[in-house]
Each structure stands twice: as C-alpha cells, then as structure tokens.
Amino acid sequence: MHPTPAPPSRPKLKFPTWLTVVLSVFAVLFILGAVFGKPAPTPEPVAAPVAPPPTTAVTTSSSPAPVTYTVDKITDAANLDLAGSDGSHRTVRILGLEVATGNNCYAAETVTWANNKLAGAAVKITTDTTDGVSLALTDGTDYATATLSAGYARLSGNVVSDSLRNASNTAQQAAAGLWAEPCKGMITAPMPVPPAPTPTPTPKKDTPAPPPAPRVSEQAAPPPPPVEDQPEPEQPSAAYYKNCAAAKAAGVAPLHRGDPGYRPALDRDGDGIACER
C-alpha cells in the first residue's frame, strides 16, 4: 500500500519591512496611551435651581452711645473715682502726674486746686492703659497738662510725652506752685518750718548828754562829813559873811556854832568852828 503524499505547502506571505515598522510604532503608541492616558471626564450632574429666599425687611440697629464719665470722688490730684453714664464706676490714676499727699509740702494746695477743677465735672478718657488714663475736660484741655503747667504736680519719671515735659519745664522755670518757696519741688517730705523771726531791737531814745563837769575852780566844796548827834543847823543870823576872808576882815573869825554869821558852809571840817585858820 502506498502512502498518501502530503499536500504541497503554500508559500508564506511576507510583509514589507516598512509596514512592520509602522505597525510596531502604532502598537507602542496604543499601549502607552492605555497606560498613561487620562480617563474621559465624567459629566457632573446639573443641580436644580434654588429658589431665592423670601425677601424680608432688614432692621439696622444703631451703635451704642459712647460712655461719658463724671468725677465722683477726688482722693488727690492724681487719683480719682469716675462714674460712667452706663452705671459703671472706675478708680483711675492720671498718667504723668506725681503729686504731694498727706501732710507733705504743697499737698493741701494741690487737693484744693483739684477739687475746684474736677469736682462733679464731666470728663472724657482719651488714653486708657493698664498704668493709668488721660482725661480731657469739657473745653478739650488735657487735665495732666493743666496740672503741670500750674505747678500742682511733678512729671512722673516714666512719661515720654513732649507736651507734658514742656508743661513741667515751664512751671519749674517760672517757679510756679510747688517749685516756689518753701517746697522748691520737694513733695515727698513735710513742709519746712520757717525759722522764727529775729526780734527787731527797739531803737533807744537819744538820752541827753550829761552836762560837762564844772572846772576845778568852780567845783563846790565837798559836804562836811556827818557828825553824830550833830544838832540841826541853826538858822542864819542877820550877820552874813560870804567867805572866811570876809569874816576875818570883819574881825569875827573864828566863828563858833551859834555865833552871828556862822554857817556850816564856812565850817569845812564840821567841828563847829568856822574860819579857824
């Protein structure tokens, strides 16, 4: 038995080289697009239109009125109690002021001035810090500046305000208030006690000069020494002799007490015998 011969094989088709290259390039591009390409965007659902809210009337409220203050109590010129228009109360210290207190020099004058200036007055807080406040009076005057200018306070050491420094310098140069005698800017000690005035001596009245002493020739004879149990001088008799020379000329010397013409002025030694020599 003879074997069946195999059918003849068909010749294989051979693609041109250029076509193979082109197909390879397209295959690579397809693979890269599949790996790195972005998926097609999914369309977002469209939201239904929202109906506008019903129109309502808008009520606008006015801003609260600013709080105003009135001076309620004055501890001293730098420490005050304020009463607010909203019912509040504040104890504040005035920035920039150093004042005398208690019995220290110029304390009484300072408190009196502060009471006249602030008692019951409306004020406005212009600066509000943890260290203190600044106040403006109703006429716009800064209270601390007015106090320093009048010499009722010293400038506090931690203040850098030029206006307050100028006000303090002006008062110091003019020796106003506490810068004058007797405080001279000292407000941390009692007022100096002025020294007791020195009594003014009373001028003595001019006493008349004593009359000049008489010359030796004009001096009267010294009075005779007292004689114990000397009788009262006798009254002069009718005879009178100016001196012993006259008595001797009349021939009556010596004269004894009781003789006419005897008188004590002629008896120098007071022994009762005149003109004995």
Sheet with the most strands, sense and barrel status: 5 strands, antiparallel
N-to-C CA distance:
244 Å
If you average the pLDDT, what whole number results? Answer: 77
Can you tell me the CATH topology of the domain at 69-179?
OB fold (Dihydrolipoamide Acetyltransferase, E2P)
Order of SSEs, N→C?
HEEEEHEEHEHHEE
* Helical/strand content category: alpha+beta
Strand content: 5-15%
- DSSP strand tally: 9
CATH class category name of the domain at 69-179: Mainly Beta
Which term fits the overall shape?
Answer: rod-shaped
Helicity level, as a percent range?
10-25%
Q: Tell me the Rg in angstroms.
A: 68 Å
Structure annotation, total helices: 5
Biased composition (Pro residues): 191-214
Pfam families: Excalibur
Protein name: Thermonuclease family protein
Biased composition (Low complexity): 235-253
Describe the structure.
This protein has 277 residues and is α+β, with helices and mostly antiparallel strands. Among the domains are: 111 residues, OB fold (Dihydrolipoamide Acetyltransferase, E2P) (Beta Barrel), CATH 2.40.50.90; 43 residues, no CATH class. The protein has five helices and nine strands. The strands form three sheets. The protein has a five-stranded antiparallel β-sheet with strand order 3-2-1-5-6, covered by helices on one side. A two-stranded antiparallel sheet has the order 4-7. It has a two-stranded antiparallel sheet with strand order 8-9. Helix 3 runs parallel beside helix 4. The longest helix has 20 residues. This is Thermonuclease family protein.
